[in-house]
C-alpha cells in the first residue's frame, strides 16, 4: 500500500527532524550554561567577599592576594595576623572565604565558611576594596 508507506516515511522523517532539533536545542542550552559558569562563579566569589567583609566589619582587605589563586582557604587575604583581627596568637591568620577563623580562642577552630568549597574552578585576585578579578589560569600575564 503506497499511501501507508508514504505516511510511515513522513512520520519517521518528522520524528527524525524533531529529534535533531531537540538535540541542537539541548546542545545550545548546555553551551550557554557552560559559557555562563565563569560569570556565575565570579558573582558567587564576589558575594562571598562582600559577606565576609560585612561580617568582620572591615571596609578594606589589609593584604589582598595579588597572584591568582583558586584556593579559598587563602583568598582574599591569608596573611593578616590574628592580633590585627582582634584574635589570639593561635588563631588562623587572614580574612579568607573558607575556614575563616573569627573566634578568639587561640586555636584554628570555630571557623566560618563564606563559600561552599575550598577550591574554585577559576582563579582570583582581589584589591583592597574587595573587588575581585577572575583569571583562567594562575597567572596574570596577558597572552
Distance between the termini: 66 Å
The largest β sheet comes out as:
3 strands, antiparallel
Mean pLDDT: 82
By helix and strand content, what is the structural category? alpha+beta
Strand content: 15-25%
Spatial order of the strands forming the largest sheet: 1-6-7
Please tally the helical runs, counting DSSP H or I stretches of 4 or more residues: 1
Taken from the alpha-carbon principal axes, the silhouette is elongated
Q: How helix-rich are the residues, as a percent range?
A: 25-40%
Give the low-pLDDT segments: 29-33
Q: Indicate the radius of gyration in whole angstroms.
A: 25 Å
Number of strands: 7
How many separate domains? 1
Q: What is the helix/strand order?
A: HEEEEEEE
Describe the model:
By secondary structure, the chain is an alpha+beta fold. The protein has one domain (2-135). 38% of the residues lie in helices and 16% in strands. The chain has one helix at 2-55, and strands spanning 69-71, 76-77, 95-96, 100-101, 111-112, 119-126, 132-135. A three-stranded antiparallel sheet has the order 1-6-7, with helices on one face. The protein has a two-stranded antiparallel sheet with strand order 2-3. Strand 6 and strand 7 form a beta hairpin.
Quick overview of this protein structure:
The chain is of the alpha+beta class and 143 residues long. The protein is 38% helix and 16% strand.
Amino acid at each position: 500500500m503506497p499511501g501507508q508507506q508514504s505516511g510511515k516515511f513522513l512520520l519517521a522523517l518528522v520524528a527524525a527532524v524533531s529529534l535533531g532539533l531537540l538535540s541542537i536545542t539541548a546542545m545550545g542550552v548546555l553551551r550557554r550554561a557552560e559559557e555562563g559558569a565563569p560569570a556565575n562563579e565570579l558573582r558567587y566569589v564576589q558575594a562571598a567577599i562582600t559577606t565576609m567583609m560585612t561580617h568582620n566589619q572591615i571596609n578594606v582587605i589589609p593584604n589582598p592576594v595579588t597572584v591568582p589563586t583558586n584556593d579559598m582557604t587563602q583568598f582574599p587575604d591569608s596573611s593578616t595576623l590574628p592580633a590585627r583581627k582582634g584574635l589570639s596568637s593561635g588563631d588562623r591568620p587572614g580574612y579568607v572565604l573558607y575556614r575563616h577563623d573569627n573566634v578568639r580562642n587561640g586555636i584554628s577552630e570555630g571557623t566560618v565558611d563564606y563559600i561552599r568549597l575550598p577550591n574554585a574552578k577559576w582563579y582570583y585576585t582581589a584589591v583592597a576594596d574587595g573587588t575581585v578579578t577572575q583569571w583562567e589560569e594562575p597567572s596574570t600575564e596577558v597572552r
